Structure formats: C-alpha cells, structure tokens
Amino acid sequence: MLNEEFKEKSIFNEMAAKLLITQGNPGPTVHCVYYSCIQLMLYIIFDKKKIYTELQFKEHTRGNGTHKTAIETIRKEIKYSGTVFKSFQREIVIIKKLREKSDYHRAIITPSEGYEAIRSGTALKSSLKLEFKI
Amino acid sequence: MTPQNFIEIKLSALAKQFPHVCIRYGYDEIGQAHIVELTPANEYYSNIELDNSWMPISWEFYDLFENEDLTFITDDSWLKIENVILEFNLIKSLDECIISDLFAPIMQNFIAYSFSTKIPAGQIMKNSIGKFLSYPLQDMSEEGIVESSYSIAA
Predict the structure, then answer these.
(1) Which residue of A2, A24, A61, A125 is 20 to 30 Å from B68, comparing CA positions?
(2) How far apart are CA B68 and CA B4, in angstroms?
(3) What pTM, to 2 d.p., does this model score?
(4) What b/e sequence results for B78-108 when a residue is b if at least 16 CB atoms lie within 10 Å of its CB, and e otherwise?
C-alpha cells in the first residue's frame, strides 16, 4: 500500500489553483501550481519509485533546497525518457520563473500568467503521470 | 569554463550539424535560466536527430553546472528571449534550404541557357490593344542589330 499524502496534497493545490484563477487571483494561482508540481515529484521520489527514503533525501538536500533537490532527482530519473524529458525541462523553467515573480518580486501576476502557470503545471504533471504510471 | 562558454561551444557545433535550424540563446534574469530557442517549431517537435543532439547538451550542462538552469524551447513558448546573446543560422530557414536544394540544378541550366538573338520573320502576334504586329527577321546580336521597322498589319 502506497502512502498517498504527497499525491493528495498535489491534487489539493491543483484544485486550489483552478479555484483561485476563476476568482481572479492569478498570483496565488501560480504559487499553488508550483507546490502542486513539487508535491507530485515528492510522491514519485518517496512513494511511487522509492528513489530515496525521507532521511536519505534530507541528506541530499544539505546545502540545497528541498525543491531544487526534488527537481534534480526527477530530472535525472527521466533523463533518457525522450519526450517526457523534453516536456519537463521546458515546463519547469516556466513554472519556476512565474513562482519567482509571484512570490519574490513586486511585479503583479496577470491573469494570462496565471492561466499559463495552470497550463504549464498540467503539462508537466501529465508527462510525469504518464512516465511513472500514476 | 563558464556556463555561457559551454553553451556557446555546444550551440556552435549544433548549428553546423543542423544548418536549417535557427538557434538563439539568451539569459532570463527573473527565471535565472539559460534559454535556447530552436526554430522552426516543426523541427523542435518532430526532428528526432535534433532531439538526440540537444538533449546530451542539456545533460552535460546539468552535470557541470548544478546551480544553473537550461531549457530548450521553440517560438511558441511563453518564455521569450528578451536579450539575444548568441544567434546561429539566422537567415537560412528550412524553406529556403528546400527551395535552393530543389531548384539549384534548374537554376544552373537556366543561367547557362543561351538563346537565339534572331527573331524569325513572318510571326504575327496580337498586342494588347488588338493590333497585329509582324516581325521581320532581325539580328539582335551586338554587332548585327539591323535597323528595321515593325509594320502594323491592321
């Protein structure tokens, strides 16, 4: 039986992102999309593929952030997966940029940027779900 | 070696391997990512050989520069290169390559083609205002331009 907590958290953030964009809140939408993607990656790392235990993962994150380590771990895992790698390396930079702008810059996130975050996050998660049969 | 040096060397080789693919490189300050744009989009999405050439560049980049980000996109991406640092194969598009490849032999023949400088006599043509023109034999070569009048045959 797999632990599904990270997967559920990912789904909740995805639902929150969709709700927030319809309510006209593109900034928090971006934030939720980003966390939804990271939590799906953590689900793959800990539960679906069991690449690391949570303790091993903590050791790997020393000097780096949790998010960075999660992204790097997944990137290495899908390195030879052709279209999945192609999609991942394309979308993750968009999501990271929008999240950076949303959370750490004074700039206002526009509705079109909010929708782009949802599109990009959906594309990234779809390719990971396909690859890891989630 | 800096990330930019690495990218420059690799993209230069990629550009030689795929002369019909336009390659642009820039750096995104907010996203803190190196962006490489490959166009036309159909090459980016459908050319497996191109994939097999740029993907190893990406893998090697992440092995060498683990604190940097690199992405390969095409021109339909939300990401845009605002300040282009490097450009390769900018002018020659795929269409131009196909046209020049296909038509090169024809163009050679066309250029080599020589034609008579004499207009045969007795031909009658209808001009745009409906009058008939007849052409007597003329030598149009440089030495032999013959003064001749065109008679209008009503």
Answers:
(1) A125
(2) 11
(3) 0.77
(4) bbebeeeebbbbeeeebeeeeeeeeeeeeee
Q: Helix-strand-coil percent breakdown of chain A, rounded to 5?
A: 80, 0, 20
Look at residue B44 in the predicted model and tell me its pLDDT. Answer: 98
What are the φ/ψ torsions at residue B67 (nearest 5 degrees)? Answer: -100, 10
Q: Tell me the shortest Cα–Cα distance from A107 to chain B, in angstroms.
A: 11
Distance from CA of B110 to the nearest CA of A (A): 45
**If you search the block for the tokens 């009503």, which residue do you land on?**
B154
Query: Over B92-129, what HEC string results?
Result: CCHHHHHHHHHHHHHHHHHHHCCCCCEECCCEEEECCC
Q: Do B33 and A89 touch (CB under 8 A)?
A: no
Helix axis angle, A111-131 relative to A5-22, nearest 10°? 150
- Which segments in chain A show pLDDT lower than 70? 1
CA A95/CA A105 separation, integer angstroms: 15
Strand order in the sheet with B151-153: B123-126, B132-135, B151-153
Query: How many Cβ pairs within 8 Å bridge chains A and B?
Result: 45
Dihedral angle at the C-alpha atoms of A14, A20, A26, A28, nearest 10 degrees? -70
A64: its two tokens: 């780096």
Closest alpha carbon within chain A to B55: A86
Q: Any idea how long chain A is?
A: 134
Task: Tell me what pLDDT residue B148 has.
Answer: 46
pLDDT tens per residue across span A2-37: 789 999 999 999 999 999 999 999 999 999 999 999
